Amino acid sequence: MASHISTGPETAEEIIQEVTSSFGPLIRFMLETSERIMTQIFSQEGIFQVSAIAFAFLAALLVTRPLGRLIERAWPLEDEDTMFLASAFRVVRRLVFPAIWAFGLWISVAAFRKAGIGNDLIRVIASLLQAWIFIRLFSTFVRDPIWSRTFATIAWIVAALTILRLLNPTIAILDSFAFNLGEARISVYMALKGIAILVMLIWLASLVSRFVQTRLGRASNMTSSVRTLIAQSVRIALLFIAIMLAMNAIGVDLTALAVFSGAVGVGIGFGLQAIFSNLVAGIILLIEETVKVGDFVELESGLSGEVREINIRATLITTNDNIDILVPNSEFINNRVTNLTLRDAFVRVRIPFGVAYGTDKDLVRTAALEASAAVPHMLTGPKAKPPQVWLVNFGDSSLDFELVVWLKPEAVKRPRAVNADYNWAIETALAKYGIEIPFPQRDLHIRSGSLPINLTAETKPSEGG
């Protein structure tokens, strides 16, 4: 017995017919809506309403500027919180024109209703303006401009469709475009709904994590690394919950995530190995506290700078040239790291220099100690230690000394500038006492034989002499 197997469209005509049948209700709805609007506009009542809308628009233009100046003179900007007041003033100033226009339109609605003339078009425009004003006011409380624009756009679309009585038809049309994912039916409407819910939940998660981070910042009994670890953990957990709730809202079976988790595990084993390694390394750094925010570190690669942030994937280091560099966290775990401020910020430095053979050693010590006193980087106070001058080597061309100095905490983070300042001061002090800084030289001794040397000197008679 032959079985009948249904297949999809095969020819171009069948595909076009199926697409047309899918978009047919949408096209008919848009044509009927536009025809109804155009009929209403070009009717006698429609012409009256368009004239009233234009008149209210011109009146709002004439009144906006003087009213804005009046608000500017009366606005209190002498308080301490001038930043908030200035921001609120800019918002109010931008809303003066649409508020006056909406007010004029609502007056026109009342007048048309009393005269027995249709006012649907005016009422729709006034409602749209009123909705935009309230949405704009609400979005100002969201300080992030990206989130503010996102919320304003979504709210404005929903409000406009509701006012135009197109929300339910639009939902029905969007819900008609769907596909099956396993046993779940996913439509365009459900996808947009899930995206909107996800955006809202991510924003709420950001607010909660920022609040937690602020509260943790006031906890003096916790170290900065522990506070950062807790804040990052809360943020990741909230984002994960937001994604799960958004997926559940569109009807995705969360039990199917078991397969996804297995795929993630395989991905970590292959392509995501480096990312997962940096993630674990960042958690280790925050727990061990071997590298903290504010430490001055030198990496095995030669990079040195101050640690500004320890994130989940990478650590932000700012060099003394004010260059921000992101270093993967695994580099702090797998390679050697010199932390100059791990336990305390008191560091001893050695500044090498050389003088000619035969120079008085005591005179060299005097000059070097004067040089150390002339540089303001030396540690002072109760934990101060005096500088020292060491004779460390008998070089080929010089007596090699080292000026040994303990540095202040703020100078530890500027090693190159400190070394340059001490070299400058040492050269000045040696020149003051007439101490020679030698350069490499070789003596030639002839054991036997003779070597003729001709000395010639060319002189020119001076002109006019």
TrEMBL record:
What UniProt keywords apply to this chain's record, in alphabetical order?
A: Cell membrane, Membrane, Transmembrane, Transmembrane helix
Q: Does the keyword Transmembrane apply?
A: yes
Domain called Mechanosensitive ion channel MscS C-terminal: residue spans: 349-437
Main subcellular location:
membrane
TM stretches of this protein: 46-63, 95-115, 121-139, 151-174, 186-208, 229-250, 256-287
Pfam families in alphabetical order: MS_channel_1st, MS_channel_2nd, MS_channel_3rd
Which topology term describes how it sits in the membrane?
A: Multi-pass membrane protein
Mechanosensitive ion channel transmembrane helices 2/3 domain location is: 234-273
What residues does the Mechanosensitive ion channel MscS domain cover? 275-341
Its annotated compartments are: Cell membrane
Q: Which domain of life is it from?
A: Bacteria
Which protein family is it in?
Belongs to the MscS (TC 1.A.23) family.
- In its UniProt entry, what is this protein called? Mechanosensitive ion channel
